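If you are new to this repository, start here. Below is one unmodified record pulled from the training split, so you can see the exact layout before writing a loader.
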Amino acid sequence: MFTQQVDENIELALVQPSFAALYVDLAKDNYDYLEQWLAWPPHNKVEADFKGFVEQCLTEYATGKSMVCGVFYQGDLVGTAGFNSINHDLKKAELGYWLGASMQGHGIITKVNKHLINIAFNELGMDKVQLCAAEHNLPSRAVAQRLGMTLEGIITNAENLNGRIVDHAIYGLLKEQR
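And here is the target side for that same chain:
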């Protein structure tokens, strides 16, 4: 199993089936918040749903298409982070993450994403890391800015978030910009 220590309090662990029950508990306490910015919450309510998610993630990891990790803070699962997609032809990886509402504002996701960017450039051989956030998701956009990413543009009608069409702000960081 893949695990990496981000700092003394934060650890990343490749998702695994045993995380499913933990995700049920974490998501249950955060559905209202998560549904604002993510499409999956209405479709993932029970352990079997999260096991299916984990199985899909592990299949994509095995084929080099993505890498999804549980984010642990002081031993507790507090969210997910990783690469939603890894495109070896374009040498580009796309960051994706979510964190329980009570754990936001402590720098966890910024530290995790800095760690992931290092993995992308130094271990995966990527030339670009990208982050897409709903245009009005100001906390996620602030993460991209803290990471030194450049706003590349706004894509209109980019996603249907549970019946609400949102635009995406696209941020990028090139290896040589670091």
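Two things worth knowing about this chain: The CA atoms of residues 31 and 54 lie 19 Å apart. The longest strand covers residues 76-87.
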